[in-house]
From TrEMBL:
GO molecular function annotation: 2-oxoglutarate-dependent dioxygenase activity
Protein name: Taurine catabolism dioxygenase TauD, TfdA family
Species the sequence originates in: Engelhardtia mirabilis
Entry keywords, A to Z: Oxidoreductase
C-alpha cells in the first residue's frame, strides 16, 4: 500500500498534459461532427446528444488521435491529473451550441459516463456556465472569485464526481482556471500536518449550488485519503471547511497556503478543452470580467453506484438520496 510520503513527486500523476491540435485536422473532425448532428435533425435532447457523441468518438480518433489518447490516459489510475487541449475552434468551423455539446461529450467519452445532479443547473447534462450578476461568490454562476475546491465534497467518496471537463465557448478577457494536484499541495507541507489531514478532524458544508437546505455540515471526515487504487484523493472546499480542533486548524491553515502555491493556471478559451480529476486536486478561478461561457460535464467510470443509491437510471440523479448515503 502506498503511503502519503512515497507518492509525493509522482511525475505522471501530477502532470497537466497539454495538446495543441492541427487546425486542418480539427476542422475536418468538427465538420464531420456537425454533419452528423445535422443529419440526425439537429437534436438537443440529452439521450440523443450522448448517442451522437459515442458515434463521433471514431471521428476524433481518426483526426485527433493525440487528443483522444491524452484523455484516455487521464482516465486511468495514476494517469495525468489534467489534460488541456487547444485548437478546437479552427477558422471555418461552424458548430451549433448543441453540436458543441456533442463534441464535448465525444472528447470525454473515454472517461466513462457523463452525469448531472437534478438540483444543479436545472439538471442539464452539459450546462453552459456563464457569470450571472448577483449570484453569491464561490459558485459556478457567480462573476466573483471561486476559491479552491473539489466539487461535491460532502458526498461519500464512492458517489462523487471523478473528472470535470470544461469546453470553452467564449472567454472575452481570458479568465484562467487553476488546478492543484493533491501531491503538489502535500509536497509543501510537513509530515505532521500531512498526517492530520488524513484524520477525520474536519467537516465540510453543503454547497450553494446544490439548491437544497444549504448550510448543513458533514459528519467528521479526512480531507485527504487513499482510494482503492492507491491514489491520493482530496475532498475539500477551502471556503466551506471547518477544522475540528487546534491541530486540525493549524494543518488546514498550512494546507490553504500550499494550495495557493500549487495552483497551475490555464485559460479555457474558445475551442479549448480541459479535463481534470476532481477527486485528486482542487480547482479555482479569479473573478470574471467580461463574457465567459464554458460547457461543463461531470464524469465517472460508470454510474452504477449512483443508480443503486437513487433507484434512478440517470444520467441525471436526485441529490437527496445521495446525501443520505
Amino acid at each position: 500500500m502506498q503511503t502519503i510520503d512515497n507518492t509525493i513527486g509522482r511525475d505522471v500523476a501530477t502532470t497537466i498534459a497539454r495538446i495543441s491540435v492541427d487546425p486542418d485536422r480539427a476542422l475536418a473532425a468538427l465538420t464531420e461532427i456537425d454533419d452528423l448532428h445535422r443529419a440526425n435533425g439537429s437534436p438537443n435532447e440529452t439521450p440523443i446528444l450522448w448517442r451522437l457523441a459515442r458515434q463521433a468518438r471514431p471521428i476524433l480518433s481518426a483526426h485527433l488521435p493525440a487528443a483522444v489518447a491524452a484523455v484516455e490516459a487521464h482516465s486511468q489510475p495514476f494517469g495525468p491529473c489534467a489534460v488541456a487541449i487547444e485548437g478546437l475552434a479552427p477558422t471555418g468551423s461552424r458548430l451549433s451550441p448543441d453540436a458543441q455539446r456533442v463534441l464535448a461529450l465525444a472528447l470525454g467519452s473515454p472517461l466513462g459516463s457523463p452525469f448531472q445532479y437534478l438540483q444543479q443547473n436545472d439538471g442539464v447534462l452539459v450546462p453552459g456556465l456563464s457569470p450571472t450578476p448577483g449570484v453569491v461568490a464561490n459558485s459556478g454562476a457567480s462573476p466573483g472569485p471561486f476559491a479552491a475546491h473539489s466539487d461535491d465534497a460532502i458526498l461519500p467518496p464512492h458517489l462523487r464526481v471523478r473528472s470535470i471537463a470544461l469546453f470553452g465557448v467564449e472567454n472575452e478577457t481570458r479568465v484562467p482556471t487553476g488546478y492543484a494536484p493533491i501531491e503538489a499541495i502535500l509536497d509543501r507541507l510537513d509530515r505532521p500536518d500531512r498526517a492530520i489531514l488524513m484524520t477525520p478532524d474536519f467537516a465540510v458544508r453543503k454547497p450553494h449550488s446544490f439548491d437544497l437546505d444549504g448550510g448543513s455540515w458533514s459528519a467528521p471526515l479526512p480531507l485527504v485519503f487513499e482510494n482503492a487504487a492507491g491514489e491520493l484523493c482530496v475532498q475539500c472546499p477551502t471556503y466551506n471547511t471547518r477544522p475540528l480542533g487546534a491541530a486540525a486548524a493549524r494543518a488546514f491553515a498550512g494546507f490553504r497556503r500550499a494550495v495557493d502555491e500549487a495552483l497551475q493556471w490555464l485559460v479555457v478559451g474558445e475551442g479549448s478543452y480541459m479535463v481534470f480529476r476532481n477527486d485528486r486536486g482542487l480547482h479555482a478561478r479569479p473573478p470574471i470580467a467580461g463574457r465567459r461561457t464554458v460547457l461543463r460535464t461531470y464524469w465517472r467510470p460508470d454510474t452504477a453506484s449512483l443508480q443503486a443509491a437513487t433507484g434512478q437510471a440517470g444520467p441525471v440523479f436526485d441529490l437527496r438520496p445521495l446525501l443520505a448515503g
